[in-house]
Amino acid sequence: MIRMFRFTLIVVGKIKNRALAVLCEDFSQRLRRQGQFGCIELKDGDVDSEGQRILEVLGKRKDARIYALAEEGSSYRSKELAGALAELEGQSAVFIVGGAYGLSDAVKQRADVLWSLSPLTFTHEIARLLLYEQLYRAVSIQNGSKYHHE
Q: β-strands 93-97, 113-115: how paired?
């Protein structure tokens, strides 16, 4: 059974690296073929102003499960992430990638899940690419695609 999903990314800043932008667009197109997927880019600034803009967008998404990427968050193996997202069944999910200085405490407190991609630190552009790829991988696992090898 093919599972449908509703994912929205809220990201701070544009991707300036052309190669990363192309890869993100590729995964974005792949995700759109399998469900509802969108990305909201917000203007960068200081952590507090970015946080305020993120919270304004989140205010319109009361029914969604909120995942904020944060270094102190929990980590998932790819199959665990696929399982967690499968449990949403009909509920949408919002994923937040902060700017160069991370997320405000207010955004972290608003999130349902703090998620760490890795104990390593990444630029927000690379974190965004990794998020796109892991979401695609999770959907592929759920749908029985051969994309994920284990």
A: unpaired
Q: What CA–CA distance (Å, rounded) separates 113 from 46?
A: 23
- The model carries a pTM of 0.93
Domains of the chain: 6-142 (3.40.1280.10)
DSSP structure class, residue 147? S
Q: How far apart are CA 131 and CA 150, in angstroms?
A: 19
Query: Measuring CA to CA, which residue among 128, 118, 120 is closest to residue 12?
Result: 128
pLDDT at 2: 56
What is the residue whose two structure tokens read 């700017």?
99
How far is CA 103 from each of CA 13, 58, 127, rounded to the nearest angstrom?
13, 14, 13
Cα Dmax for the chain: 44
pLDDT in tens, 112-144: 999 999 999 899 899 999 999 999 999 999 888
What is the residue whose two structure tokens read 């690379």? 126
